[in-house]
Design a protein that fits this description.
The protein is of the alpha+beta class. It is built from seven helices and ten strands. The longest helix is centred in the last third of the chain and has 21 residues, at about 195-215. Strands 1-6-7-5 form a four-stranded antiparallel beta sheet. Strands 2-3-4-8 form a four-stranded antiparallel beta sheet. It has a two-stranded antiparallel ribbon with strand order 9-10. It starts with a helix and ends in a 6-residue tail after the last strand. A hairpin with a 2-residue loop joins strand 2 and strand 3.
Length: about 270
């Protein structure tokens, strides 16, 4: 599933071609994806100008001058295609401007879109109880310390909790915990301030590096321009089960399952 850096990369790719453009045509090629398309979507977007684009957690946001925002989630295999040369049976939503054609393509149809009033965006159900953005100023050591204080749940699972911090996914939590030297099974309440002072910067750094590199592009993911990101080549633990730790500490990367998700870590340097 595309994670925060992949969604951010997608938004930045769309922004280059879509921002400031007027939508001339909207086409729905089926009645639904994971959920039905919102009623009035075609009428609401046709003729609107794209005022800006943004991201909240793993959701992309396309804001219009009609004070409405198109929210999209890429699901497991979704991506936007810009000016596709040919139609594809998995192009479910097509948006056209005078200059370009944008197709939301999703073979598995686990993605979805919604249309909400921009002033009420923060009250949209998925956003209402979300924690701060991990790359924002509100995500601090003090915030994380308060959010996990006294918690017995594993730190890995707490970081995946969208109420604690928005948008973190499995790949980047594994990588950040490795960089900070924290065992993924350690209870959140036992991860004290010195460790958190390493963890918060590690989370920001691993996300920022991945965005610069264009996302990890695992499996089906690709940027809107069709290019693949290459952060996957920088993974230090994710997917490296059985390999020696890059720190040369004699550890061998292990894989365990937490909350139904695989976790990779070094049992020597992550304590």
């Amino acid at each position: 599933m595309p994670e925060l850096p992949e969604v951010e990369t997608t938004v930045r790719g769309l922004e280059r071609f879509m921002e400031g453009e007027r939508i001339t045509r909207v086409q729905l090629n089926r009645p639904d994806m994971r959920f039905p398309f919102p009623q009035g979507l075609v009428q609401s977007l046709t003729g609107a100008r794209v005022s800006s684009l943004g991201r909240r957690a793993k959701y992309g946001l396309i804001h219009t001058d009609r004070e409405s925002t198109l929210i999209f989630h890429l699901g497991m295999s979704g991506r936007w295609r810009i000016d596709p040369g040919t139609d594809d049976k998995h192009d479910h939503l097509v948006i056209e401007t005078a200059q370009n054609r944008f197709a939301l393509n999703d073979p598995r149809r686990f993605g979805y879109v919604d249309l909400v009033d921009t002033p009420a965006l923060d009250q949209w159900p998925a956003f209402a109880a979300m924690g701060p953005e991990p790359l924002g100023d509100a995500f601090t050591v003090d915030h994380l310390r308060a959010a996990i204080k006294g918690r017995k749940q594993a730190i890995k699972l707490l970081l995946l909790d969208q109420h604690v911090v928005a948008g973190l996914g499995n790949i980047y939590v594994c990588e950040a915990l490795f960089r900070a030297g924290i065992h993924p099974r350690k209870a959140g309440g036992r991860v004290y301030k010195p460790a958190l002072e390493k963890l918060v910067p590690a989370i920001k750094q691993v996300l920022e590096q991945s965005i610069v590199d264009g996302g990890s592009s695992l499996r089906d993911y690709a940027r809107p321009d069709g290019e693949l990101g290459y952060f996957a080549t920088r993974f230090q633990v994710y997917g490296h089960e059985g390999e020696p730790c890059v720190r040369g500490d004699g550890g061998v990367i292990r894989r365990i399952v937490q909350g139904g998700r695989s976790t990779w870590f070094c049992p020597v340097c992550q304590t």
